[in-house]
Automatic annotation (TrEMBL):
It comes from Magnetococcus massalia (strain MO-1). This is Uncharacterized protein. The lineage of its organism: Bacteria, Pseudomonadati, Pseudomonadota, Magnetococcia, Magnetococcales.
Length: 56
């Protein structure tokens, strides 16, 4: 039972990483169109990117 929960939580984590990727792409597109616009979740996006880099 614990194993099933672990697998489900892993899939949940993958979903959140994918959502993070979408947010990073949106932030980058916004950044390119308006360099002076600083997205308030840039720090969070960087953390997701670092985490994703560690996963590879």
């Amino acid at each position: 039972m614990l194993y099933i929960y672990w697998v489900l939580s892993l899939f949940g984590m993958i979903d959140s990483i994918n959502a993070g990727h979408q947010k990073i792409k949106a932030s980058m597109a916004l950044w390119e169109s308006d360099p002076f616009f600083l997205h308030e979740s840039v720090v969070e996006d960087n953390n997701i990117r670092e985490f994703d880099h560690l996963c590879q």
